[in-house]
Each structure stands twice: as C-alpha cells, then as structure tokens.
Design goal:
Blueprint (H helix, E strand, L loop, with lengths): L1 H14 L4 H9 L9 H17 L1 E4 L7 H12 L15 E5 L7 E4 L5 E4 L5 E3 L5 E4 H6 L8 H11 L17 H20 L14 H14 L1 H7 L1 H11 L3 H5 L9
Parallel strand pairs: 1-2, 2-6
Antiparallel strand pairs: 3-4, 5-6
Length: about 260
C-alpha cells in the first residue's frame, strides 16, 4: 500500500513534466501500441513515466533529447514489462543515446583470459549490470512494424540478464516449463541457422542466428512487432513468449496492422 501511495504521488508530479501534445505525438508514432485497451494504455503511460524517473537518459555527441524523444523511448521500454512490472529492470540506471551508430571501443576479457577491444559498429548495446546504449537514428527507424526495434532488442537482453549473463533464457515464471522453453527455442534457433547458412530469406532478422541470446532478443522484437509472422513460422516460440511477457500481441495487432500483413 505504501508503494502504491508513493507511486501515485510520483506520477502526479511526473505527469506535469510533459504536455499532452507531446504524449499524443509520441504515442501516435508507435504503431506497435495499437489495440491496447484504455486501461492498458493508461498503465503503459504510468510505467513510461516511472521508467523516466528511475533511469537517467543521457545524450552524447551533441544529440539533443526532446520531450517527445524521451516519451517515445520510455513507451517502447515499458511495453515488454507492462504485465511484469518495472522491477524487471532493476540493477541498472542509465540509458545512453548516440545520434547514430557508434563504436564502443571498450576492452573485454574472453574465457581464456585474453584482452580484446570491441570495435564493432553497433546500433545498440546492453551491458550486464551496466547501461543500455542506443543509436537514436536506429530508434527512429524502428517505428514501423517490420520486426526491427532496437529498444525492444536491447531491453530483451536486460530481461535475459536478470539472472546472469545473457543466454537466451530469462528467469521464467513459476507456471512455465523450462524444458518446453528450451525445446521451442532450440528448434527455432537451429532452423534459423539452417536457413541463414543456406542463403534463404529468413522469417525473422538473421542476426538472431548469432547466438541463443541474440535469438531471444530478435524473437522478442518479432513478438511485439510482427506477431503473425513469428506465430506462423515458430508457433512454439510465440507461445513461450506469450507466457513469459503475459501478453498476446497477435490478438491485438492481428495481421493487418503493418504494410504487407497477411
């Protein structure tokens, strides 16, 4: 009860920070939020405000963050935990935004104790017990329902890291079967790798073939943006994600919400 009272006080104050015109513009630019009920819409908005209060959004390299940009990021970040709660994002406090793709140029130590420098160009990155880093150009490009959404992707990694390094399996709910999860994801991951190796057009982003952790993040993007395709190609994965996120995007988005939807 104390937590609910405190959140109510916080939300009253945080709502005053943003104009209704900014809310409407940010919300209208995100078709992946289509079909939410009024109750869900209000709950998502509150989660977005609490996200902005708990996480520090830092712009670098001259990027200027507007109110609409902040709300857009927060609404997308809140969607995966709409039925789980912000506690699933505990343990990290900053979201860093570059204007475009970036090179982290940071050192890391591999399993053999060798030190490497990560100089790969990235659109997003999530550090275990550290920040989420995003390219604003890629955030803006992810507003269409095509299965590419860097906000959803990196925050899926954060959910995966709730119990340690990302491995493609976040902490599952008590009513979920670990064996069913493993079987569904292993079969789909093997299929995506086979198709990618054969040069076929994969049903979801081929980057998911990089590792089980990347497959979970890519599948999460598809779950929220192109649920009809994910369910058609990998129905067992869709079923597991529906149980994990406690949402059914296919029911609210259908197949007609995106260009070319079946």
């Amino acid at each position: 009860m104390l937590t609910r009272w405190w959140q109510s006080r916080v939300l009253v104050r945080e709502r005053r920070r943003y104009r209704q015109s900014d809310w409407r513009a940010a919300r209208a630019a995100l078709p992946l939020l289509a079909g939410l009920s009024d109750e869900q819409d209000g709950r998502l908005a509150d989660l977005a405000l609490l996200f902005l209060r708990e996480k520090r959004l830092e712009a670098v390299q001259g990027l200027q963050l507007t109110a609409r940009m902040r709300l857009s990021i927060a609404l997308q970040a809140a969607l995966p935990v709409m039925e789980l709660g912000l506690d699933w994002y505990r343990g990290w406090y900053a979201l860093i935004l570059y204007p475009a793709e970036f090179v982290p140029a940071r050192e890391y130590v591999d399993a053999d104790g060798l030190v490497w420098v990560d100089d790969e160009v990235k659109s997003g990155e999530a550090w275990e017990q550290g920040p989420v880093i995003l390219s604003w150009a890629d955030v803006a490009a992810g507003r269409t329902l095509n299965g590419y959404n860097v906000v959803l992707h990196e925050l899926a990694h954060k959910l995966d890291m709730r119990d340690g390094p990302a491995n493609g399996r976040p902490p599952l709910h008590a009513d979920m079967s670990g064996q069913s999860w493993a079987e569904a994801f292993a079969a789909a991951y093997a299929d995506l790798n086979r198709r990618t190796a054969a040069g076929e057009e994969p049903p979801i982003d081929p980057y998911g073939a990089e590792s089980p952790a990347e497959f979970f993040a890519v599948a999460s993007e598809a779950f929220f943006e192109i649920p009809d395709l994910l369910n058609a190609e990998y129905p067992a994965v869709y079923s597991q994600l529906r149980a994990f996120y406690r949402q059914d995007p296919l029911a609210r988005l259908g197949a007609g919400a995106r260009p070319g939807g079946r």
